Amino acid sequence: MAGTLAEKVWEAHLVRQGTDGAPDLLYIDLHLVHEVTSPQAFEGLRLAGRPVRRPDLTIATEDHNTPTLDIDLPIADPTSRTQIDTLRNNAAEFGVRLHSLGDADQGIVHQVGPQLGLTMPGLTVVCGDSHTSTHGAFGALAFGIGTSEVEHVLATQTLPLAPFKTMAITVNGDLPPGTTSKDIILAIIAKIGTGGGQGYVLEYRGEAIRRLSMEARMTICNMSIEAGARAGMIAPDETTFEYLKGRPHAPEGEDWDAAVEYWRTLRSDDDAEFDTEVVLEAADLEPFVTWGTNPGQGLPLSASVPVPAEIADEGERVAAERSLEYMGLEAGTPLRDIAVDTVFIGSCTNGRIEDLRSVAKVLQGRTKADGVRVLVVPASARVRLQAEAEGLDVVFKDFGAEWRNAGCSMCLGMNPDQLQPGERAASTSNRNFEGRQGKGGRTHLVSPLVAAATAVRGTLSSVADLDLGEDIDLTTFDGSPLAPLTAPSFV
Amino acid sequence: MEKILTHTGVGVPLRRSNVDTDQIIPAVYLKRVTRTGFEDALFAAWRGDESFVLNQDAYRNGSVLVAGPDFGTGSSREHAVWALKDYGFRVVLASRFADIFRGNSGKQGLVAGVVAPDDIELLWKILETKPGTEVTVDLEQRTVHADDVTVPFQIDDYTRWRLMEGLDDIGLTLQHEDDISAYEQSRSSWRPTTLPAKHLPKVEIEPARPVS
Fold first, then answer.
1. Keywords, A to Z (chain B) (predicted)?
2. Same domain, A293 and A145
């Protein structure tokens, strides 16, 4: 029978088929662990006297709580310090590999997996974090789990799972200059809604997706969860193989050949049936920004803040009214007129080297708008090293931005990087919920290019609003590496 | 997880309906990194009230909670079940439970038995007129016995079997360990392992400092 990509990966991991409505038991290839959702899981193992079944399929890193300044000093916040200390003790006790603060492979768990070459096509990947969907960009079936499930995977390397539905999202054509994969996913979420993906595994396909680099694909899959989906996937291709080859844990020799041969079969069959299909034209896209307090409340930058009275659906109207009140926005205000206090560039959505390169291209030779704080936080310590090797840190500092250590940082403000009440941010992260980036903080989700242009002008802007030189080719921002790597590659 | 065939312990009458999980354990306790030690958090808002049932000597060591309808509504936090178990409860009886709470209970070895409203009233009267009365809950017979009264309770077959076998989700899965091991034998060699760790060269990282 013809199958979709997701179904093929599912079937390849069946340990036991569920009968009489019982869930299937699936094998988990890679379990990523961080300090926030793991303590009770390890405690549960300890209480039951169970070991970690496969420490060799498990890897931990510190990211959610880690400070991005003074990482050599004790962590000031006691809760954060306790969670990190607990992870260190648990990793030592159970024999789990841990990349701690200060280690070159420390960073956001969803960057660490790919950069080490552990994330690859055809795997099942889980983590106690909803943005685990990121790894689907490689053609892996990757999804977030709860603490009990973390314990279950630690103990058994399997998970009982109920079946999912499949949705194909086809993006045709070419992205216009100045738009990125972030704009694609924000447009998709605005189109299908924050609940539109519920119960589904999304598969992104079409020319526009094929042309994206690995990192740009990760941005799209990362935000699948913001559409309510269980996972997002992209079939692996030459771009995927090229990204993987030579990374520390990538297969070698005959293993590599066998893997690639298998990976080439990981695509939805031509006659595979999806439960739902959605089609977008890339050429219609513009830089997208959110105006409200959920990722589905987004519009093209050229639009204005919506007028709630004009929204027909009562639920959406009430939600819009509430969002505007929280966001401190007047209905009808052009989005381009919205001034920000902070620009945050980072997170598992857009804190990778390509993101930093594209931002640096825009910021080079400019200075930041008065009164705007600009925070640049690489997704991992390796990304930081790579950026420094390429001199990007100098560009950021000359511009007036703060260059930080790696971590989740202001994406969720579990560390000291937070918005103050009433502060407004243009953020390359993934959630604009009330209070997400700090109590009372107001978040506009944007692409790295929009974040950069906004940092220059102080109001929500696209690169088209800047007088960029002819030598900057915006069409390649989401393509293969922007510039030939003259510096040594750490990433 | 411990097997439970029958359980006998002091019954605690909780004459309240719609006890949601925020009442069972307030959110402020969720920051902890442990899985045990939540006994002080159970019904934290009510424990300050001297007249609260658990503050009375006769009920202090109770292990069978007899509650009003719609017990365990609200947030899905697993901590609610942990708090009840840590305090010493093994059984909660009510005429109706929230689905998620009931599911969480079964997974964590707490018996959530559904008892008819009239029978709950009967049990309450016994426990209130004779504080400290022991209640026996028999999973095999699906009965609750207190004083001279025996009433039935409902629990689905699957959860009952799991409780009687002492199987949590992990225990259940580990019953299929042969299948898991067989699957592991068949995994292709290209699939990655995190150990032994492979690294790029160690590099020193300069800590970023605040901008002055």
1. Amino-acid biosynthesis, Branched-chain amino acid biosynthesis, Leucine biosynthesis, Lyase
2. no
Q: What are the residues facing A300 on neighbouring strands? A: A288
Q: Please report the DSSP string for A410-468 in residue order.
A: GGTTSSS--PPTT-EEEESSS---TTTTSTT-EEEE--HHHHHHHHHHSBS--GGGS--
B86: closest CA of chain A, how far (Å): 13
Residue of A nearest to B198 (CA): A248
pLDDT score of B100: 82
Using the beta-carbon criterion (under 8 Å), do B179 and A69 form an inter-chain contact? no
A292 in the same domain as A202: no
Q: Judge contact between B86 and B42, C-beta under 8 A.
A: yes
Same domain, A425 and A293: yes
Average pLDDT over residues A317-322: 93
If asked whether residues A240 and A315 sit together in one domain, one would say: no
Question: Is residue B199 in a domain?
Answer: no
| Per-residue pLDDT tens digits for A246-290 | 999 999 999 999 999 999 999 999 999 999 999 999 999 999 999
**Residue A399 to residue A259: CA distance in whole angstroms:** 44
Per CB-CB distance under 8 Å, the chain B contacts of A151 are 170
Pairing relationship of beta strands A402-403 and A373-376 according to DSSP bridges: parallel
User: Would you tell me how many other CB atoms lie within 10 Å of the CB of residue A186?
Assistant: 28
Q: A435-488 pLDDT, tens per residue?
A: 999 989 999 999 999 999 999 999 999 999 998 876 666 554 544 443 333 344
* The predicted structure's pLDDT at residue A170: 98
Query: And the tokens for A135?
Result: 């790894």
- Positions of chain B with pLDDT under 50: none
Contact, A456 vs A361, CB < 8 A? no
Which of A381, A369, A462, A432 is closest to A183 using CA atoms? A462
Q: Percentage of residues in chain A with pLDDT exceeding 90?
A: 87
Q: Which long-range contacts (CB under 8 A, 24 or more apart) does A89-93 make?
A: A90/A38, A90/A39, A90/A42, A91/A33, A91/A60, A93/A42, A93/A46
ipTM of model over 0.90: yes
Same-domain pairing of A193 and A97: yes
Q: Is the Cα dihedral A352, A355, A361, A365 positive or negative?
A: negative
Average pLDDT over residues A145-173: 94
Q: Are A382 and B200 in contact (CB under 8 A)?
A: yes
Structural domain count, chain A = 2
List the CATH number of the domain containing A56. Answer: 3.30.499.10
A393 touching chain B per CB within 8 A: no
pLDDT in the model for residue A484:
34
Residue A400 sits in the same domain as residue A446: yes
- Domain encompassing residue A380: 288-476
Q: Which of A226, A258, A277 lies at the terminal end of a domain, its last residue?
A: A277
Per-residue model confidence (pLDDT) at position B199? 81
**Closest residue by Cα to residue A203 from A230, A235, A181:** A235
* Chain B residues whose beta carbon lies within 8 Å of the beta carbon of residue A262: 188, 190
A348 is annotated as contributing to ligand binding: yes
A148 touches B at CB < 8 Å: yes
Contacts of residue A267, defined as CB under 8 A and 6 or more positions apart, other chains included, come to: A5, A235, A236
